[in-house]
Recover the amino acids of this structure.
């Protein structure tokens, strides 16, 4: 939601629940406190604090905001699609740490990525789909980067 400010964006998954909403009335002080906490906890850099329009933030900080919002929802299943595409190395490392921390908390993590190094670094199990067909599913420690790359190009069973 690029046109929302950061506080509203960070509360998208919880705005209808207490303490954000009481008797159908939004409590903006709760939005603000929640936003400030996530900015601090997830190191989101924003020029105007919680009033920063998300559209004006760097790609890395937009990604951090999305990660913060979704992780704070405490879902049992987290799906990350190209979570680091186009980001600088610092933002990539930060997001990788957040994904691994979510896995350690016990959430199931589905990572969809075209970045082979990212898959090899983060996955416990690797499944490769090519042209809508499942090429391979195996524990990550049993696969080499070369094998995964071949499966990504449609080369089957080796």
């Amino acid at each position: 939601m690029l046109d929302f400010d950061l506080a509203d964006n960070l509360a998208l998954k919880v705005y209808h629940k207490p303490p954000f909403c009481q008797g159908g009335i939004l409590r903006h002080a709760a939005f603000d406190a929640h936003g400030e906490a996530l900015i601090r906890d997830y190191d989101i850099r924003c020029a105007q604090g919680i009033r920063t329009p998300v559209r004006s933030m760097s790609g890395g900080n937009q990604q951090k905001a999305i990660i913060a919002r979704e992780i704070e929802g405490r879902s049992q299943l987290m799906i990350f699609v190209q979570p680091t595409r186009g980001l600088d190395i610092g933002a990539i490392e930060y997001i990788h740490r957040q994904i691994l921390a979510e896995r350690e908390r016990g959430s199931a993590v589905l990572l969809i990525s075209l970045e082979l190094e990212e898959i090899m670094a983060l996955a416990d199990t690797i499944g490769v789909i090519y042209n809508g067909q499942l090429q391979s599913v195996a524990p990550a420690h049993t696969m080499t980067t070369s094998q995964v790359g071949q499966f990504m190009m449609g080369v089957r069973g080796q």
